[in-house]
Amino acid sequence: MAIPDAFADIDLKTHTLLLDVDGTLLDIAPTPDRVAVPGDLRLTLARLSEVTGGAIALVSGRQIAALDRLFTPLQLSAVGVHGAELRVGGNMIDRGLKPLPQALRDRLARGAAAIGLLTEDKGYSFALHFRNAPEKESAAQELAQTGREQFPDENLDVTANKMLFEVVRRGVSKGRGIEALMTYQPFAGRRPVFVGDDRTDEDGFVAVQGLQGLAFAVARDFPGLAGKFSTPDEVRRALTALARH
Ligand SMILES: [Mg+2]
Q1: Ligand 1 centroid vs 47 CA: distance in angstroms?
Q2: Mean pLDDT across the stretch 168-196?
Q3: pLDDT at 227 over 70
Q4: CA atoms of 105 and 156, how far apart (whole Å)
Q5: Helix (H, G, I), strand (E, B) or coil at 215
Q6: What is the pLDDT of residue 2?
Q7: Of 5, 9, 20, 198, which one is the catalytic site residue?
Q8: Which of 17, 97, 164, 212 could in theory staple to 56 by disulfide, Cβ–Cβ 3.0 to 4.6 A?
Q9: How remote is the CA of residue 75 from the centroid of ligand 1, in Å?
Q10: Among this protein's residues, is 153 annotated catalytic?
Q11: How much distance in Å is there from the Cα of 59 to the middle of ligand 1?
């Protein structure tokens, strides 16, 4: 598959680039801390940030601090933890959310240790990964669901992503995060272009479509897409080409 025409034609003076990270910019790794960031991707993103006047953002389930570690020395604007965290032009924006109760995070950590699942405690969400143990999918789901049910007053959801279940606050989504980001300069007034690959990115597709923007998916079908990439490598090559214009 080739780079979608609609992506190659993006005008960086009037559009803003919103990019999911795992499975979109980066190849998925066996565990989240083993992903590799190609050196030329950093250069491409830095160049795109320059050309767009900073109107480029990472949109990820990861914490913004984790994104900074991955992309160091770059510190791009970012929507982190599926929208629970927001940073614009170096300033963290308070989304007015409470972290998950410590008792729930402890309970999930204990349960996961007992069945041998890899976990990520992201404060506003808690992820249970079963990529290394696909046979534990239903145990992971049950742990997440019972955890959620133990805290009925906290308004929690369980989301299913690629090889992981995650407990998050209801209403936290990449879509809401993108909508919030787009109210700030230099994003406001531009057309958002969002590229994502996973179930949680579908909220982002809907959000940018609602903002007259363009949604692109990586190896995923969704109504109204402006185009599709087949691999993260193809996304990286498309960004490199865009940065050269
Ligand atoms: Mg992804």
Answers
A1: 22
A2: 96
A3: yes
A4: 13
A5: strand
A6: 81
A7: 20
A8: 17
A9: 19
A10: no
A11: 9
